[in-house]
Write a structure and sequence with these properties.
851 residues, alpha+beta, TIM Barrel, Immunoglobulin-like, 4 domains, 9-stranded parallel β-sheet, 8-stranded antiparallel β-sheet
Length: 851
C-alpha cells in the first residue's frame, strides 16, 4: 500500500518528491513489485544502553552511539534488521559502544552522548542530530522512503553548507548542486561531467561555518547522492537495494571527521618508501631492450626515479601472470638488472583470467580445479571478453579464492618484482553492453563475519575491485610477511585504502584534465585514499611539451608521481621535448627527492591517523575566512592545495592561460619555498563573491605571473621542514647533513616540525626499529632558540650533522651555542633571506641558541 504524505509535505507534489528516488530500472535482482512506504508514524520505541529503537508498524529505526562523536543509523522495513556485516567498516568499530543518557519528551524520543543530542520527532519520525549546545548538525527533510527494494534518505540542506568526498568524482571540489551515481565503471577518456567513473566511496563530509560532519552510507548496491540538484534545499542519498545503514561522524573540526572515518574503515598501511619516488610507466614498454633503455636514460641524464611499470604488453597474449618470451627472452635477468640500477618493477596483473582450457595456462587450470570463478545464473562459469579474449573472473567474495589468487604472485615475487597493479577491476568487460558483468552473475560469500550465502553481481559489483586488491595485498604478505606490499588499484570501495593505493584512471592529455586532478586527489584524500595520483601528462593523447612540463611540476608535490601514457601516443618521458624542457622537469623531480624526509613523515602520519597527504585548505584552516566558509570554493583558491600542513602549492586556476592571477593564502605568515623570502600581500581582488576588505583580515592575496619554468609554492610561517641531499633513488644513502628549514611565524608564534624514518621496506618499525624526531623553536627579538629532540627508536640516522636554514630572522650578531657550548665553526653564515648554521647531531638531542 502507499502511505499518505505527512503534513510537512504541504506544497510538494508527489512528482517532485519522487524525482529524487531511484529509477525503477535499477531495482535489485529479485525485488518484488514496487510498494511505496514512508517511515513517518511512530507506533513504539525502546531504549537501548547505547541508543534507541523507534518503530512504525513492522518497520524500525535503530540509532546507536559507537562513540560520543560517532552514530550509526539503521532502518529496516521488515521485522528484523539485515545482517550486521560489512566489507568497509571494521568489526571492532561496529562493535564499539558508549553508554547514553535517554532523552524522551512529549515531542520526541532520543538520547544524549557527551558530544551529541539525538531527537526523533514523535509526529513524523524526523531525525535531528544536534551538538551538545543544541545547534542543529543534521536534520531529516523528508521521511525515510522505500520504493520496493530501493530507499532514499533526505536531509535539510542549509544555504551555506558545502559537501566534499565521494572519492575522485569529477567536477569542482564542492559537491553542492551536483548529483552522482556510485557504480564502478571503466570510463576511458572521462570528462568533467562524466559519471559514474571508477570508484564507489559512499562517504561525504558536510561543512558549514567551520563545523564538519561525516556521513558513510555502507551499502554495496548501486547508490546515488544528490546535493541539491533536484531540490534546492534538500540533499539525499539512497540505494536500489540492500541495507539502509549509515554512520554519522561529528568533528566539529574537519580533521576530526577524517580521523573518525579512518577509525571506522581503517587506515592506509605504511607504504614502501620507493613508492614516493618518481615512477615511469607506459602502455606499453616492449621489447625488453626498450625497458632497459628507458631505465638507462634516467640514470644517464641524472633524473631521479624509483620505478618502471610493465603494462599488459609484457604478457603472453595479454594473459595475466604470463610473460611473452619472444619480447622478454630474459625476463628475470631484466628485473635483476633493473634492481641493480635501483629500479623497482611494478607489473600489471589484471583480474580477468584467459579462458584457455587445455593450454597449460596455470591460473585458469588451478582456478577451475579449485572452483574459484564466478558463475552465471544457470550455474555455468561466467565468461566475458577482455584483453586476453574470452575470460573468467575470480570470485573474490570467497576467502579461499583470495588465498588462491595470492599464490599466483609467487613466481613474480620470487624474481624480484616489487609492486603490482590491479587494473580493469570494476570489473571491465568488453562484450557487455553495460561494460561489466550481468547483474545476475552469482558470487558466493564465504567470508568470516558474513553469513555464508550467494549474492548477485548487483550487490557485489562495487566491492569487487576492492576485494581484488585485498586478495593481492594479503597474498603478497603471505608470500613475504616482512615486506610491505605495494598494490595499485583502479576500482575500489570504502575501506579499500587498507589494501591499495589508487589513481584517477584513464584521464586525457589536456589542460582541463591537469586542472581536474587537484580536486579529484583532494576528495580522494578526504575519502581515505591518501596514497593517490593521476597519470602525469595524461593517459589518452599526446601532451604538448608545455603541458607535460607543467604537469610534472605539479605532480612533484602529490603523493604518487607516475608518468603514464597510452598505446599509440607519443613518448612522454621527462626528456621528451628537448634539453630546455628536460631541465625544468628534472629540477622539480629533484626537489621531490630533496623533500623525501617530509613526504615520508607525512606518509607515516597517514598510516597512523588517516590524515591525507594532499589536503584542501579548509582542512587545516577552517577559520581562515571571517564567516568560516571553506576558502577552497573561492575562485582565487580553487587550484591551490596543501601538501601536509606546511606546504601550499598555488598553480593557476587556468593553467593553459598566460594571464596573471591572485592566489589566496589562508593565514598571514607565508614564505616563498624557492627563495625563503617572506610573502607580502599584493593589491587586487581575492574573492569576486565577497568584499576584499572582509577576506583580507585573515588571508594574504598574492599576485602571480604564470611562467613555464616556475610553480608557486609557499611555506607556512612557523614550519620546520626536514630536507635531505639529492639522491637518484630512495635506495641511495644521502651524503651530507640533514637540513632543517626553519620559518619564523607571526608575532609570538612558535615553530615546530617532525621527522620519521625507518628502513622503508619492512615491518621492523613495529618492533621499534624506527627513528622519530620532533623540532621546535621560539623567538625573542631576532634571537632563535631551536630544540632538536633526542632520537626516538633504534633506527640509525644517515646523517651525523644537522644544518639549520633559518628564514625570517636577520643574521645573528653573536655566537652560536649548542647545548650551552659554542658550536664548532662559531658564527652562523648569512643567506639571502636568513642564515644557516651546522652542528653535530649525536642523537641525544640539541638545544641551539642564536642571538
Amino acid at each position: 500500500m502507499m502511505r499518505r504524505f505527512p503534513s510537512f509535505f504541504a506544497g510538494l507534489t508527489a512528482a517532485v518528491f519522487f524525482a529524487v528516488q531511484p529509477s525503477s530500472v535499477l531495482y535489485g535482482q529479485g525485488a518484488s513489485a514496487p510498494a511505496l512506504f514512508a517511515f513517518d508514524r511512530a507506533t513504539g520505541s525502546s531504549a537501548l544502553p547505547n541508543g534507541v529503537v523507534v518503530r512504525d508498524g513492522d518497520a524500525s529505526e535503530e540509532i546507536t552511539a559507537l562513540r560520543d562523536d560517532v552514530l550509526r543509523v539503521r532502518v529496516a522495513r521488515g521485522k528484523a534488521m539485515p545482517e550486521d556485516a560489512s566489507w568497509a567498516v571494521l568489526a571492532e568499530a561496529r562493535r564499539s559502544s558508549v553508554a547514553v543518557t535517554q532523552d524522551v519528551t512529549s515531542e520526541h524520543f532520543g538520547f544524549r552522548t557527551k558530544m551529541l543530542r539525538v531527537e526523533i520527532e514523535k509526529k513524523t519520525l524526523r531525525l535531528t542530530i544536534r551538538d551538545i549546545a543544541g545547534n542543529v548538525l543534521q536534520q531529516d527533510a523528508l521521511p525515510v522512503h522505500f520504493d520496493g527494494a530501493a530507499f532514499r534518505v533526505s536531509k535539510a540542506m542549509p544555504l551555506d553548507e558545502h559537501y566534499f568526498g565521494l572519492g575522485d568524482k569529477t567536477g569542482p571540489l564542492d559537491r553542492r548542486d551536483q548529483a552522482f551515481s556510485l557504480w564502478n565503471t571503466d570510463s576511458y577518456r572521462f570528462q568533467e561531467s562524466t559519471d559514474p567513473i571508477y570508484k564507489a566511496i559512499p562517504f561525504f563530509m558536510t561543512y558549514k561555518a567551520g563545523v564538519a560532519l561525516g556521513v558513510l552510507l555502507d551499502n554495496t548496491w548501486r547508490t546515488s547522492f544528490d546535493f541539491g540538484r533536484e531540490l534546492p534545499d534538500v540533499y539525499s542519498f539512497g540505494a536500489v537495494d540492500g541495507p539502509l545503514n549509515y554512520y554519522v561522524m561529528y568533528g566539529p573540526a574537519p580533521k576530526q571527521v577524517v580521523e573518525d572515518y579512518a577509525w571506522l574503515t581503517g587506515k592506509p598501511p605504511m607504504p614502501p618508501m620507493w613508492t614516493l619516488g618518481f615512477q615511469q610507466s607506459r602502455y606499453t614498454y616492449t621489447p625488453e631492450s626498450r625497458v632497459l633503455e628507458v631505465a638507462q636514460r634516467f640514470r644517464t641524464d641524472r633524473i631521479p626515479a624509483d620505478a618502471i611499470y610493465l603494462d599488459i604488453g609484457f604478457q603472453d597474449r595479454n594473459r595475466p601472470f604470463s610473460v611473452d618470451r619472444k619480447l622478454f627472452p630474459d625476463f628475470a635477468g631484466m628485473v635483476a638488472h633493473l634492481k641493480e640500477e635501483n629500479f623497482h618493477v611494478v607489473a600489471i596483473t589484471d583480474l580477468h583470467i584467459a579462458k584457455a582450457q587445455g593450454e597449460g595456462y596455470q591460473p585458469y587450470d588451478s582456478g577451475m580445479a579449485g572452483d574459484h570463478f564466478v558463475k552465471s545464473a544457470d550455474g555455468s562459469v561466467y565468461s566475458g571478453r577482455v584483453w586476453p579474449g574470452p575470460s573468467v573472473f575470480p570470485d573474490f567474495t570467497q576467502q579461499q579464492t583470495r588465498v588462491w589468487w595470492g599464490t599466483l604472485y609467487r613466481d613474480f615475487q620470487h624474481i624480484g618484482i616489487d609492486g603490482f597493479w590491479n587494473d580493469m577491476n570494476e570489473p571491465s568487460v568488453f562484450s557487455s553492453p553495460t561494460k561489466t558483468m550481468p547483474l545476475d552473475v552469482v558470487h558466493r560469500i564465504d567470508e568470516p563475519g558474513f553469513a555464508k550465502r550467494t549474492a548477485t553481481h548487483a550487490e557485489i559489483h562495487d566491492v569487487y575491485g576492492m576485494e581484488n586488491s585485498r586478495a593481492t595485498f594479503d597474498g603478497l604478505l603471505a608470500l613475504e610477511p616482512d615486506t610491505r606490499p605495494f598494490v595499485l588499484t583502479r576500482a575500489t570501495y570504502a575501506g579499500g585504502q587498507r589494501y591499495a593505493a589508487t589513481w584517477t584512471g584513464d584521464n586525457s592529455s589536456t589542460w582541463n584534465h591537469l586542472r581536474m586532478t587537484t580536486p579529484m586527489l583532494e576528495n580522494l584524500g578526504l575519502s581515505g585514499f591518501s596514497y593517490a595520483g593521476a597519470d602525469v601528462g595524461g593517459y589518452a593523447g599526446t601532451p604538448t611539451p608545455e603541458l607535460l612540463t607543467k604537469w610534472l611540476e605539479v605532480a612533484a608535490f602529490q603523493p604518487i608521481d607516475r608518468d603514464h601514457s597510452e598505446l599509440g601516443t607519443g613518448d612522454q618521458e621527462p626528456w621528451v621535448g628537448g634539453a630546455e624542457q628536460e631541465g625544468i622537469r628534472r629540477r622539480f623531480i629533484e626537489e621531490r627527492y630533496r623533500l623525501m624526509p617530509y613526504l615520508y613523515t607525512l606518509a607515516e602520519e597517514t598510516s597512523r591517523t588517516g590524515m591525507p597527504m594532499v589536503r584542501p585548505l579548509f582542512l587545516e584552516f577552517p577559520d581562515a575566512a571571517p564567516d568560516r566558509h571553506p576558502l577552497d570554493v573561492d575562485m582565487a583558491s580553487s587550484a591551490e592545495f596543501l601538501l601536509g600542513r606546511n606546504l601550499l602549492i598555488a598553480p593557476s586556476p587556468w593553467p593553459e592561460q598566460l594571464d596573471d592571477y591572485f592566489a589566496e593564502l589562508p593565514s598571514r605568515e607565508w614564505y616563498d619555498y624557492w627563495t625563503g623570502k617572506r610573502v607580502e600581500a599584493s593589491s587586487g581582488p581575492v574573492n569576486l563573491a565577497q568584499p576584499e576588505s572582509l577576506l583580507m583580515k585573515r588571508t594574504v592575496a598574492v599576485k602571480l605571473h604564470p611562467e613555464l619554468a616556475t610553480l608557486p609554492v609557499f611555506v607556512r610561517g612557523g614550519a620546520i621542514l626536514p630536507v635531505e641531499p639529492l639522491v637518484q633513488s630512495t635506495n641511495e644513502r644521502p651524503q651530507g647533513p640533514l637540513t632543517l628549514r626553519v620559518y619564523r611565524g607571526g608575532e609570538g608564534d612558535d615553530c615546530a616540525g617532525s621527522l620519521y624514518l625507518d628502513d622503508g621496506k619492512t615491518y621492523a618499525f613495529r618492533k621499534g626499529d624506527f627513528l622519530r624526531m620532533q623540532f621546535s623553536c621560539s623567538t625573542e627579538g631576532d634571537g632563535l632558540w631551536l630544540h632538536v629532540s633526542a632520537h626516538e627508536g633504534s633506527f640509525p640516522a644517515w646523517w651525523s650533522e644537522i644544518r639549520v636554514e633559518a628564514y625570517g630572522w636577520g643574521a645573528p650578531q653573536g655566537r652560536v651555542l649548542v647545548n650551552g657550548r659554542e658550536a664548532a665553526g662559531g658564527a652562523a653564515t648569512a643567506l639571502p633571506e636568513g642564515f644557516s648554521v651546522t652542528f653535530a647531531d649525536d642523537g641525544k638531542g640539541e638545544d641551539v641558541q642564536l642571538r
